[in-house]
UniProtKB/TrEMBL annotation:
Region entry Disordered, spans: 1-24
Signal peptide residues on this chain, from the entry's feature table: none
Protein name stated in the entry: Chitinase
Residue stretches of biased makeup (Low complexity): 1-16
Length: 313
C-alpha cells in the first residue's frame, strides 16, 4: 500500500463463539494517515457519517529497533495523534491499527522474536484503544515469526487479525509470499480475515472489472487453503481495498470503477471494504497528479467515502 507521506491439513471452520471473539464486524473503514495534521475526523464524519477507520501505519522507530511508532517517526503517545484517536472513540467509531505498508522498517523485521513482535503489536493496540490489528505485508518477512506473534496475540487477548496482501498482476490472485503466510496462519489455527489490495497491478480492460476479477482470484486462493469452509464462508473472510484515484503505477480508480467493485462486494457478501485513503478523497488535484492529499481525478469531496459507506454485508 502507498506510504503514509502508503501443505498443511485444513483447519476446521471456527465456531460461532470463536468468530465473535476475533472477527471484525466493521464493514467499511477507510485508511487514514493518522499523523497528518490535515486530518479532521469530525469534519469527515459530519460530511459522510463515517466513524470507523484504519489508522496507518505503525512501523519500527527511526533507529530501526523493535519500538513501534507512527510512520516510524512519531511516538505512539503523540498528543495530536491521540486527540484524533479520541475523536474516533467519541463518535463511537472502531479503530483498526495497521502495521507495515509500503515504506519504512517493519516491526515484523526489526523485532527478532515472536514474543517481542507480539509485545510491540499489543503496545500499539493498547495506545490506540483497539483490539483489531491489520498487518499489511508488502515485502519479505519471516513467516514463522509473524505467525507465532499473531498466535500469541490472538490467544492472549482475542485480537481480530486482518492480513492485508497485494494481488498479483491480472487475475493471478495473491503473490507467493502472501500465500505462504496464509498457509502458515491456517496451519496454526488462527482466525483471520484477508484484505486484497486491488491496486498497482497490471490489467487489461475496464479497471473496475479488473479489481473485481483480482478479488475473485484471491477468493479462489483462500478456498484452496481453507478447504473446510463453504464458498459463502470464504467470501465472508475476504475484504477488498482499492486505491482511489490515481494509483502509484498507472491505473486510475474513478468513482465509476468503485461502483463496479462495490456491486461485486454486495453480490458476493465480502467481509468489508476499505480504501486508501480518506486523506485523498477530494478533487483538489483533478489533473491526474499522484498525491497523498488528493485523488488526482475529478470528484466531489468524499465521493468515495460516501459511496462505500452504503455497503452492508
Amino acid at each position: 500500500m502507498p506510504s503514509v507521506s502508503v501443505s498443511a491439513s485444513p483447519s476446521p471452520a471456527p465456531s460461532a463463539t470463536e468468530e465473535e471473539a476475533t472477527e471484525t464486524k466493521t464493514t467499511v473503514a477507510p485508511y487514514v494517515d493518522i499523523v497528518s495534521s490535515a486530518v479532521d475526523i469530525a469534519a469527515i464524519h459530519k460530511a459522510t457519517g463515517q466513524s470507523d477507520f484504519v489508522v496507518a501505519f505503525v512501523t519500527a522507530n527511526k533507529a530501526g529497533t523493535c519500538t513501534p511508532a507512527w510512520d516510524g517517526a512519531t511516538a505512539l503517545t503523540d498528543a495530536a495523534v491521540k486527540a484524533r484517536l479520541t475523536k474516533i472513540d467519541a463518535l463511537g467509531g472502531d479503530v483498526i491499527v495497521a502495521t507495515g505498508g509500503a515504506t519504512g522498517t517493519y516491526l515484523e523485521t526489526a523485532c527478532g522474536t515472536s514474543a517481542a513482535l507480539a509485545t510491540a503489536y499489543a503496545k500499539a493496540l493498547d495506545v490506540a484503544g483497539s483490539n483489531h490489528l491489520d498487518v499489511d505485508i508488502e515485502r519479505e518477512v519471516d513467516t514463522a515469526t509473524v505467525t507465532a506473534a499473531l498466535a500469541k496475540l490472538q490467544e492472549s487477548r482475542d485480537t481480530a487479525i486482518t492480513l492485508t496482501l497485494p494481488v498479483a498482476d491480472g487475475a493471478g490472485g495473491l503473490a507467493a509470499d502472501g500465500l505462504e503466510l496464509l498457509r502458515s496462519v491456517e496451519k496454526a489455527g488462527l482466525t483471520v480475515t484477508v484484505n486484497a489490495m486491488t491496486m498497482n497491478f497490471r490489467a487489461d480492460g475496464d479497471w473496475g472489472t479488473a479489481m473485481a476479477a483480482a478479488t475473485e482470484a484471491v477468493h479462489d486462493d483462500l478456498a484452496g487453503i481453507w478447504t473446510g469452509l463453504s464458498d459463502a464462508e470464504v467470501y465472508a473472510m475476504l475484504g477488498v481495498t482499492p486505491m482511489i484515484g490515481v494509483n502509484d503505477t498507472g491505473p486510475v480508480t474513478e468513482v465509476s470503477d468503485a461502483k463496479t467493485l462495490l456491486a461485486y462486494a454486495e453480490k458476493k457478501g465480502l467481509a468489508f471494504i476499505r480504501f486508501w485513503s480518506v486523506n485523498r478523497d477530494n478533487g483538489g488535484c483533478a489533473d491526474g497528479s499522484l498525491s497523498s492529499t488528493c485523488s488526482g481525478v475529478d470528484q466531489s469531496d468524499y465521493a468515495f467515502t460516501k459511496l462505500f459507506a452504503t455497503y452492508a454485508d
